[in-house]
Amino acid sequence: MRKIFFLSLLSILSCYADAQELNCRVSVLSQQVQLSDKRIFTTLETAIREFMNNTKWSNDQFKRDERIECILTFNITKYNQPDDMSGSLQIQVRRTAFNTNYGSVLLNFQDDNVQFRYLEYQPIEFADNAFISGLSSLLGYYAYVILAMDYDSYALEGGTPYWQKAQQVVQNAQQDGAKGWKASDIPPRNRFWFAENYMNPIFKPMREANYKYHRLGIDNMYNKMDIGRAAVLEALTKLQEVNKQRPASYNQQIFFNAKADELVNIFKQGSTQEKATVLQILGELDPTNNTKYQKINQP
Question: What is the C-alpha separation between 64 and 125, in angstroms, rounded?
C-alpha cells in the first residue's frame, strides 16, 4: 500500500515538475529522396526532437502543462551523401486559451529555403554567441521565434529578449552558405527579415496586435465573448497601422496564414455591425482570403 501511495504521489508531483519550454513534435519526410536505406532521416528526426525539447531556451521555469505546443515538419527533397540536405520546414505553434483546452494558432508557415549538413548520430550543438552548424542555427532561430511570439501574446512586447536572440542567431549564421540568413536572400521572405521586421518600430503595432488579440481577446472568450471579440477587432485595427506603411508585408501574411480560419469562427457570432466592420478591415489587409471571410455572413 505504501509503495502504491508513493508511486501515485510521484506521478502527481511529476505533473508539476519544472520542464523545458517546448513540447515539440518533429517529423522528417523524405519521399522525394531516392535512397534504399533511409535510416538517417529517422535518426535526424529523433535528434531534432530531443534537441528542441531538452534544450533550456530561457531562464524561466515552465511546468509540463505550460510548455509551448509546436510542430516542426521537415520535407527533405535533396540529399547529397554523406551529409548535405535541403528542403522545406513547416512550423506550427499553438497557444492555449485561458481556462480552456482551445489552442489558438500562433504561427503556421513554411520556410522553403532549408539547407544544412547532418551526419548520422552527429550531436546537435548550439551556442547563442557563435555559429556551430547550419542545423543548430536553424533550430535555435525557430526556438527563439516560437518563444518570442508566445511571450508577446502574454505581455506587451514581452518577447523582445527572444527576438533579439533570434537576430543574434541570424548574425552568427551569416557565415553559412545556406540561403535565408542574409537580407538579400529571397527578400523579404526569409529568416533575416522575419525577425528584423518584428524589431523595427514600424512593426510595433503588430506586436501590440499579438498581445491584444490573445491576452485581451482569445483569453476572454471563455466567459466574456463580446469583450474578447471587441479586443480582437481592435487588434486588427493595429495591423491597419502597419499596413499603411508596409502593405502586405511578409509578417502580415504569416499572421493571416495562422488566423484566417479562427477569425471566421470568432466573427460569425458577432453583431451585424461587427461583421460589416471586420469584413471591411479584412478585405483591406488580407484580400487573398476574401472568399473565406465571406463565411462570416453565413448562418
Answer: 24
DSSP three-state, residue 73:
strand
Task: Please classify residue 61 by burial: count the beta carbons closer than 10 Å to its beta carbon, then call 0-12 exposed, 13-18 middle and 19+ buried.
Answer: exposed
The residue whose grid cell reads 498581445 is: 211
* 126-143: b (≥16 Cβ within 10 Å) or e: beeeebebbbbbbbbbbb
| Cell digits of residue 169 | 542567431
Instruction: Tell whether pTM > 0.90.
Output: yes
Which cell is 225 given? 465573448
- Rounded Cα–Cα distance for residues 219 and 213 (Å): 9
| AA identity, residue 49 | R
Which phi and psi angles does 176 have, rounded to 5°?
Answer: -75, 145
Structure letter (DSSP) for residue 199: T
DSSP label of 97? P
Report how far apart the first and last C-alpha atoms of the chain are (Å, whole number).
58
Tell me: the pLDDT tens digits for 26-85? 999 999 999 999 999 999 999 999 999 999 999 999 999 999 999 999 999 999 999 999
Q: Which three cell numbers stand for residue 28?
A: 522528417
Spatial contact of 144 and 21, defined as CB atoms under 8 Å apart: no
Which residues, in sequence order, are bridge partners of residue 74?
28, 89
Measured distance CA(242)–CA(199) in Å, rounded: 13
Euclidean distance between CA atoms 107 and 150, whole angstroms:
10
Q: Where are the domains of the chain?
A: 201-299
